[in-house]
Amino acid sequence: MADYPPALGELISFFESLPEGERRENLIDMAAAAPACAPKEGEKFDLEDIRHDAECTDTVGVHARLEHGGHVHFAISLGPKVQTLTKALTAILCRGLNGSTLAEVLAVPQDFIPRIIGADLVRLRSQTVYYVLGRMKQAAHTLQAQLA
To answer: Whole-angstrom Cα distance, residue 18 to residue 2?
Structure first.
């Protein structure tokens, strides 16, 4: 799993090892953990991009800051109508990408998403499953441009 930051690689391996029923149960558990990915009161960020796009059912805020050594910390705020699968991917991405460099975030291929949630759910949800990753990559690109 050389293309993925180590924490994301571990999550991919974990989900791939699960039978379908357990995978869905764990996705529901991850969705319940999404509020822990929200910005904490008083927390400062270098970039805050909060908006409601057509690809998502509600507002999603991507909050990012660079920490020592050029590593990025993400927090994601979600509106109340955001769907369960998007919440699950939010928690997975925050756990899997926090502490990565901007270059590592930008290099993450999208091919891992069906490996985590299963091809059937990807087909059902179409492009919405890629939404949070795309927003996090946009934030990383913006931060990288600000450094240049």
So the answer is: 21
Instruction: Return the pLDDT at 123.
Output: 60
Give residues with Cβ within 8 angstroms of 127, minimum separation 6.
55
pLDDT, one tens digit per residue, over 90-111 is 999 999 999 999 999 999 998 8
What are the chain's domains?
6-147 (3.90.1010.10)
**Amino acid identity, residue 76?**
I
- Phi then psi dihedrals of residue 112, to 5 deg: -80, -20
- Say if residues 91 and 37 touch (Cβ distance below 8 Å): yes
CB neighbour list of residue 117: distance below 8 Å, 6 or more residues apart = 15, 23, 27, 85, 88, 89, 129
Query: Among residues 75, 47, 73, which one has the least CA distance to residue 147?
Result: 47
**pLDDT beneath 70: ranges in the chain:** 1-2, 120-129
Closest CA to 115 of 17, 29, 21, 16: 16
